[in-house]
Amino acid sequence: MADEPVLIKATFFSHTNDKDKDHDTGIYISVRSNDGSMVIADANNADNSGDDGTQYKDGSDHQFDLSLDAPGLHKNSAGFKTHLAVQWPACTILFGRHEPECRSR
Questions:
Q1: Whole-Å CA distances, 9 to 6, 28, 40
Q2: Containing domain of residue 72, as a range?
Q3: Residue 5 forms part of a structural domain
Q4: CA nearest neighbour of 86 among 40, 32, 47
Q5: Model pTM score
Q6: Is the dihedral of CA 47, 49, 51, 52 positive or negative?
Q7: Is residue 2 part of a domain?
Q8: Would you say residue 3 lies in a domain?
Q9: pLDDT at 48
Q10: Secondary structure of residue 74 in the 3-state scheme
Q11: Alpha-carbon span 43 to 27, nearest angstrom
């Protein structure tokens, strides 16, 4: 019998339609177990810099690897929930099961 598959990598993929992400906007991602007790992977303030290369222009695709907090997690243990936030200098946009909302900082 073959060994059970394990987590070796987590990658964030995005496509920008008509609302670009500025270079000074951070992306925050948390992937947790279904019960919320374990962080599986995350990204904090990703693709935020003074460099225009971190701008997500309209019609563009982007990806980056998340930091793995649970490398080697077995596939049968991998039920998960994802939380994504995009932080502009003035507010944080939270994405989840509902419409995005802006929370002032």
A1: 9, 17, 10
A2: 11-104
A3: no
A4: 47
A5: 0.70
A6: positive
A7: no
A8: no
A9: 79
A10: strand
A11: 7
Tokens 């919320």 locate to 36
Mind giving me the DSSP string for 23-61?
TT-EEEEEEEETTSS-EEEEEEEET-SSSGGG-B-TT-E
**Low-confidence residues in the chain, pLDDT < 70:** 1-2, 78, 87-105
* Residue 75, helix vs strand vs coil: helix
Asked if residue 5 lies in contact with residue 75, where contact means CB atoms within 8 angstroms, the answer is: yes
65 domain residue, yes or no: yes
Query: How many domains, the chain?
Result: 1
74 DSSP β-pair partners: 6
Q: Are 24 and 48 contacting, i.e. CB atoms less than 8 angstroms apart?
A: yes
Instruction: Give the H or E element holding residue 83.
Output: strand 80-87
